[in-house]
Amino acid sequence: MIKLYGFGPGLGLPDLSPFVIKAMILLEMAGLPFEVKTGLGGVRKAPKRKLPFIEDDGKVVADSRFILSYLERRYGADFSGGYDEATLAVGLMAERMLEESSYFLALERRWIRPDGWAVLEETAFSRLPRPMRAIFPPLVRRSVRKSLEGQGTGRLTESENDALAAENGRALALLLADKPYLLGDRPCRSDATALAFILAGSCDAFPGAIRDSIVNEPNVLAYRDRLRAQYLQGSARTESSG
């Protein structure tokens, strides 16, 4: 059975990382049974020092984008939804917006702003032994802050980041329009990314511009609820820590 390594559920989410949630959805779309292995210990085993990654019959594949490609090659999974290349290109641009823009805006909201950090620290690190909890979380937060400054999001004001989040949310709502899936009447790879980021972004624990850009769009909310019921009910997976 495929093993998917993630951080673990929390705050009403299947996992604290949208990329892990995306990998879960891809595996569900492919109809493949899998086991979710959770815990910060998985990061130490991760070949890229990031989650998610999968283990499958001795093969290790890291990064949700390459997990997708592996499932296509190894199991013949079809994530195209039958759309033509031009339509899929539009979906890919939406994926890149979420993964390369919205993701960093969410990092700033969760890791840097004091109210977000208070929630995240308690959720992500509460199981650490007390001596490690006093040292490890601040070190990780400092690393995230440095990464955000290098990437650029950390150099913007909170109001500037909020404006960008609102733009991204509105763009996603306009692309979805009244379609059942992001690109039309059939699901595809872009829905795995969109659903994962919509779920993470609409988390009640982090109020503000990111959440507002989702919950204020009825079509996006309906899409979230419909696809969560379709792909994240856990029928093809088991969960364990370690």
Tell me about this structure.
- With 242 residues, this protein is α/β, with parallel strands linked by helices.
- The chain has 2 domains: 2-80 and 233-241, Glutaredoxin, CATH 3.40.30; 85-231, Glutathione S-transferase Yfyf (Class Pi), Chain A, domain 2, CATH 1.20.1050.
- It has 10 helices and 5 strands.
- It has a 5-stranded mixed beta sheet with strand order 4-3-1-2-5.
- Strand 3 (53-56) and strand 4 (59-62) form a beta hairpin.
- Helix 4 runs antiparallel to helix 7.
- The two termini are 16 Å apart.
Observed structural traits:
242 residues, Glutaredoxin, Glutathione S-transferase Yfyf (Class Pi), Chain A, domain 2, five-stranded mixed beta sheet, 60% helix
Strands of the largest sheet, in order across it? 4-3-1-2-5
Give the rounded overall mean pLDDT: 95
Q: Please state the CA-atom Rg, rounded to the nearest Å.
A: 18 Å
Count of helices?
A: 10
Q: What CATH architecture of the largest domain would you give? A: Up-down Bundle
Q: What's the arrangement of secondary structure elements?
A:
Blueprint (H helix, E strand, L loop, with lengths): L1 E5 L11 H13 L3 E5 L2 H5 L7 E4 L2 E4 L1 H12 L9 H28 L1 H12 L4 H22 L6 H19 L12 H13 L7 H7 L2 H14 L5 E5 L1
Parallel strand pairs: 1-2, 2-5
Antiparallel strand pairs: 1-3, 3-4
Task: Tell me briefly what this model is.
The protein has ten helices and five strands, in the order βαβαββααααααααβ. It has helices spanning 18-30, 41-45, 64-75, 85-112, 114-125, 130-151, 158-176, 189-201, 209-215, 218-231, and strands spanning 2-6, 34-38, 53-56, 59-62, 237-241. A five-stranded mixed beta sheet has the order 4-3-1-2-5.
